[in-house]
Amino acid sequence: MTHPAVIDELMTLVDPGKVLTDAASLEAYGKDWTKHFPPAPSAIVLPKTIEQVQAIVRWANANKVALVPSGGRTGLSAGAVAANGEVVVAFDYMNQILGFNNFDRTVICQPGVITRQLQAFAEEQGLYYPVDFASSGSSQIGGNIGTNAGGIKVIRYGMTRNWVAGLKVVTGKGELLELNKDLIKNATGYDLRQLFIGAEGTLGFVVEATMRLDRTPRNLTAMVLGTPDFDSIMPVLHAFQGKLDLTAFEFFSDKGLAKIMGRGDVPAPFETACPFYALLEFEASTEEVANQALATFEHCVEQGWVLDGVMSQSETQLKNLWKLREYLSETISHWTPYKNDISVTVSKVPAFLRDIDAIVAEHYPDYEVVWYGHIGDGNLHLNILKPEHMGKDEFFASCAKVNKWVFEIVQRYNGSISAEHGVGMTKRDYLGYSRSAEEIACMKAIKAVFDPNGIMNPGKIFAPE
Ligand code: 2HG
Ligand code: ZN
């Protein structure tokens, strides 16, 4: 734990009352949405300015204190968990939108801007911020950049990375760098901006971000389609992609739907029970597009790929269909799930899922398994639910044993052990299944350049040595 005199010094660097050490704050700010590691930070500090962030970093270097960056703490890989006496740097008071350029379609955000705040701001300007996920109401832009957050619209709009025009960062040495200066074209060597995106706060702090906006989509319309088996989902994707520009293509299993129905507040899509469901979305900008979607649906039914389906006819129906997918993660959190967030190239998905499913069925015969994910971009979420009677530690330990086999399959398919949630602490021991020893050595060397004393979020991405 950090010495009290050192914490007293920290208090002089920020506004009065902006260093918290009470038990409730340590508990709340020390963890994210994972339940693996008990939080144990020394203190929480809430800077208001870039200069204060720089002062905190210099103080941390001088006193050899580890810092953990903290946004909305909605992460699912323990990237923002402070379990070892670190000081948490939280950006709740750097939450302003500082500027908007209508011509460039860019917004300057402080790191604590909530994703939904940016989306609402874009809407007020008649524009659109397209990166979206279930935690948009709490996640912060700085955290989204730290994990290169993905979500439900990646098939059309890509990850957070695609929307970052420029960054201001404070490195682990305390220097302020202005990266890319919001340019579209910039061919001046290494793009350091990209290194900080997805770095999980291991290189420094994002203290300002210029985010791009897009035009507002026209008449977004969703379809939920029930399929007779998993293998039918891919030809459905292929058929719709051949005819429409999809903005989303998600899937979930019957077990996932059952959990959503168990809530009692979401209408069923249709009566027919199906083992798998696809949710797709597109812009029904003209009647012709809507007719094309219906014709494709009929084609899929004729081929035997789809058993039943529904298309939204209003904004309310669109929202209700999305709840079937968007509420899944929060709904099953009741069962303390063991999560895997894995990806392969889209063409490999059916064989990949079959191989993983076989391993899971063999090793977890007594556990309930819920599959869902962003199948249009090759990202599958595998959730193993904890039996009610079993202790959390025993359950996680038994699931961790199977990781090795799951990740061997990921490696064999040239996939990723984390598609969008990040490595954090939950995946750090498995990084070698997705990155070569040479790559990991390069990554560590890069960290040493920006953070020579190793004060920035130690133990995240890489296992402690
Ligand atoms: C989602 O796609 C989130 O809903 C959470 O990425 C995934 O709960 C999960 O495993
Ligand atoms: Zn996801």
Gist?
The protein is built from 15 helices and 18 strands. The protein has about 475 residues and is of the alpha+beta class.
Q: What does it look like?
A:
The chain has 465 residues and is an alpha+beta fold. The chain has helices spanning 4-11, 23-29, 50-63, 115-124, 141-147, 154-157, 192-196, 233-243, 254-263, 287-302, 315-326, 328-332, 349-363, 392-412, 437-450, and strands at 19-20, 43-45, 67-70, 87-90, 97-101, 106-109, 127-128, 164-171, 176-179, 204-212, 214-215, 220-227, 246-253, 276-283, 308-311, 338-343, 368-374, 379-385. The strands form four sheets. It has a seven-stranded antiparallel sheet with strand order 15-12-14-13-17-18-16, with helices on both faces. A five-stranded antiparallel sheet has the order 5-6-10-8-9. A hairpin with a 4-residue loop joins strand 17 (368-374) and strand 18 (379-385). Helix 8 (233-243) packs antiparallel against helix 10 (287-302) and helix 13 runs antiparallel to helix 14 (392-412). The protein binds (2R)-2-hydroxypentanedioic acid and zinc ion. (2R)-2-hydroxypentanedioic acid binds next to helix 12, strand 16 and strand 18.
